[in-house]
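Lab meeting notes turned into a lecture example. A postdoc, R.K., suggested we walk through two folding results consecutively so the class can see how the record format repeats. The first protein's sequence and structure tokens come next.
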Amino acid sequence: MLTFVACGFTGLSAAAGSSISLGFTSMLIDLNCTSEQAATALSVYCLGFGIVPLFTAAFSEEFGRRPLFLVSSVIFALMHLMMALANNVSTVIVARFISGAAGSTGATMVGGVVADIWAPSERGLPMSLFALSAIGSTGLGPVLAGWVQQNAQLQWRWIQWLHLIVSGVYVLVMSVTLGETRVGVILTREARKLRKQTGDNRYRARVEDENLSLKQLIIISCTRPIYLLLTEPVVASFSLWVGLAWGILYSQIESIPLIFKSLHHFSDGQVGLAFLSMCIGALIGFLSNFYQERLYSRNVERIGPEARLYSALAAAILFPIGCFIYAWTTLPSIHWVGPMFGILVFITALFIIYLAVFSYLADTYYIYASSALAGQSLCRNLMGTAFPLFTNQMYSRLMFRWASTLFGILAAVLAIVPFILFAYGPQIRARSRFARKLSEKEAKAGT
């Protein structure tokens, strides 16, 4: 139940991230803004998503997961109210940034909740549900938003009102069903309760004696992910790979309405339905993970964390193929099923890449997994921020076919990343000063 409730916030934040693009047509007229300003509103969501978790991770260490979920979900809901009532695009942009910052809890803290309540050998299915919520809901949001936009009485503001309603319901459900899951926080509360009841100050949780202030925790949570991103080849290469995929995803979110309206004369509601290919691709990726888990169980003792990468090898090939299909089917003479199939293949690959990055980094960096994942999240969301800002210009100058072909070429170049890590992962980690520190700590713990 806790996993489903936590993943619910992931789904809400993912749907909110993409659904605004379906309301651009009416928003441009209503707020008298430019398409570049609208693209900025789309992209700054990722900026908040990437930067703010560097700070909030420390708060979860100090105060627990539940307070952060509650505060974040309330702020997330209120930002939709702010957007629904906005009188200018600047207000929308600011609200989108804050909304992304609050919604980032649905991405960064869910992994922590899963780690809190599931053993490492049992985390495959919960993590795949988390990835399904993140990737699948990115497509589901526009499916509904398209029909809201098409109704002249509703349009872009009602996309935000509906998000507010759903978010408000979620806040109520979560406040009742989501308990604290972080062990250190639970034990600290129990120790304080026992000290108060008995007057015996010997009752203490181990984490109370670690002597790290909130300020120190914030400094560590801000600097360590960047340090890992810049110095660890495993973190850097995986972050660049998934970052490219994430940037292309947000470019597709912006380009799908352009392509299906101009080439196939889709209505807003029909454009929304085109995003169903994202949902189907995410579902295929989710189902493929059951086979990946079998391969992992069978081979993890023999090859270690690299057993997480079998599906990623296939995804490395599917990733550029999906981009090329999307590129070379964007012609009026080719049926609209063609580009939708390209989207489906790309999203299937993205799902597998996304899940592999989380699983592999968690297995590789152990107690520092949250910092490694925060580093890749920063890189991934910075690319998600940047790509929509030049999507319109790129598609206008290179045309649909060649712009998407360029993405496919970049994807093909980076396809080598999981193959190198699969073949040489242990050797690469052995040369890493940070990885050696982890090995030394494990050796000390074993003695």
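The second example is placed directly after the first for contrast:
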Amino acid sequence: MESFYWTAVWATLNNTKSLSTTKQEEKWKRWLDDSGAHARTAVKDGIKQVAFSNESRRECSPFLAVMAPMLQKWWELLEKTKFQWENEWADVEDGPPLPKELLFHKFAYEVVPMYVELLKGEKARLQAFSQPDVAA
């Protein structure tokens, strides 16, 4: 479930529309190439800082500044889902394959609509970034 999130983080950090990136963002890109949990935690914590700090948003690339609040909200949704997943997985972990597959599908069908609703809520902000400035 988290792989989709990390793909979005990678795409955000490697977005070519952002003409400049900070040294910190370059470090995060390298850390994402390291599949270690410590590296991912550091990137996630950095995104959280950008999401909640106006100063951090001013100091990062424009696309990360736009994406960080959404990525943070998404991570929080995934954390809640992960807790539920772990509780339900314990009930099927030692059993046959079919209940495991059904549980996976149940959570996949719950997480995708949550992501879509999150995107709907962020639509105006994301579109404002992607639209050329018509007033210029």
